[in-house]
Design brief:
Blueprint (H helix, E strand, L loop, with lengths): L2 H24 L6 H23 L9 H10 L8 H7 L18 H21 L2
Helix pairs in contact: 1-2, 1-5, 2-3, 2-5
Length: 130
């Protein structure tokens, strides 16, 4: 196994861990939605970075999902997910963690869908390159 593949698999494991935290937090009524969505954003970010590791695409430290997906497209990947979806999830990484009244950019149904789509895409990519 190559170091790139090992790192890609590690990122995907971490993405799944964040997805699990996101889904669990959604079930707790006292947890603010933006806190749950932080983990949705993190799961999506790590899934994109898993693909980047596998493909040898260098990335800088960023939480900008749209930028990461753009780098993947530039490297020849098919579009991961709609840019608007990634754009709505990105602010939960930083901006909304420090805001006591986060703007509702998503609902739980769409947040679940985005995370599921990004993780499924990354998983399929890794499986197709075994």
């Amino acid at each position: 196994m190559t170091p790139q593949r090992e790192e890609a698999e590690r990122y995907l494991r971490l993405a799944r861990r964040d997805e699990a935290a996101f889904l669990a937090l959604l079930e707790i009524p006292t947890v603010d939605f933006s806190i749950a969505c932080f983990h949705a954003q993190q799961a999506s970010e790590k899934a994109l970075k898993a693909a980047m590791c596998l493909l040898g695409v260098e990335f800088r430290r960023t939480h900008d999902l749209e930028a990461l997906a753009g780098q993947l497209v530039d490297a020849g990947c098919s579009r991961v997910i709609a840019v608007d979806d990634l754009r709505r999830l990105t602010p939960y990484a930083v901006e909304f963690r420090y805001d006591d009244e986060a703007i509702a950019l998503l609902d739980s149904k769409n947040a679940r869908r985005i995370v599921a789509e990004v993780l499924a895409w990354a998983t399929t990519l890794l499986e197709s390159r075994e």
